[in-house]
Amino acid sequence: MYSLLGPALFASLVAAHGHVTNIVINGVSFDGWDINSDPYAETPPVVVAWGTPNTANGFIAPDAYTTSDIICHLDATNAKGHAVVAAGDRVFLQWTPDWPVSHHGPIIDYLASCGSSGCETVDKRTLEFFKIDGVGLVDGTTVPGIWADDQLIAQDSGWMVEIPSNIAPGHYVLRHEMIALHGAGTEGGTQNYPQCFNLQITGSGSDKPSGVLGTDLYRPTDPGILVNIYTSLSTYIVPGPTLYSGAVSISQTTSAITASGTPVTGTGGATGGTTTTSTSKSSTTTLVTTTSATTTTSKTTTTTSAGGSGATQTPYGQCGGSGWAGATACASPAACSSLNPWYSQCVPTAA
Ligand SMILES: [Cu+2]
What we know:
Layout: H1 2-13, E1 20-25, E2 28-31, H2 69-72, E3 83-86, E4 90-95, E5 107-113, E6 128-135, E7 137-139, E8 146-147, H3 148-154, E9 158-162, E10 170-180, E11 191-202, E12 212-213, E13 259-260, E14 264-265, E15 276-277, E16 312-313, E17 318-320, E18 329-330, E19 334-340, E20 343-348
Parallel strand pairs: 2-13, 3-11, 16-18
Antiparallel strand pairs: 1-2, 1-4, 4-9, 5-6, 5-10, 6-12, 7-8, 10-11, 14-15, 17-20, 19-20
The chain binds copper (II) ion.
Copper (II) ion binds next to loops.
């Protein structure tokens, strides 16, 4: 349905950037870190996502690539629970439904083994990530091209990743990341949005791929980080280490939700059935009636105008640049600021 509405409406829906609200494994949805309530809670609920005080849906910039913030986002703290998934199964990562259409770039997924003590207590600075998925420029026919994030928007703002079937069972952090390149033509202008989740992978695989520390994943001048997407690109090199040989390339699909899951805690059971379950925001299994096989979130965003003459752009939306035909005025309190000749953005001004 969204695809019929076109990019102009999408741009007008932009309010901020984004984060993953929940993940879905075989129809079972696990809550993510709720930036609207969890950072303020004295005792945040046990969820499978790593926590962060990033309440503004912000990003990590290249000048922080050597700091621990690049690992699992700003000041991230370990998820206190995990979800069980069989090697070979898929995980659907549901983003907030407002990813800015201007924020083109790759989507990358990594795993890192937490070792025998599990991911709830692991020191993130010791995690060694190997890449299991990396999609960048899908079609460069028209500048600035069709990118992985465009596929995500078309898939109900979600991304499906398959856990390679040969991965050895154990506890892993799934590091899922969107990278926005609209300002990446200037060094330091790239935006990374890493999101981490704790998984217990089951199965009979034996692969234990080597990986790299989160703080060694990227450099500000990597060809996939410092890149001008407003020129014709024949190829794009997805940043980060080489793709794991057992990685599986899949066609993107959505995932219907049929139940809500309870995070598992501890490292006791291999199947998840004998470990201690904890309380969470959704402690019961609830059957959800779905009216559409592709709908996993409700969309209640309101919009004022959809571009064109007299329209105003919402904060962080595009308001100018070479070839831009949409709104050039910003809804207050925001001002149109030029990042480069190809992209101007409505930047909120102090109230
Ligand atoms: Cu942005």
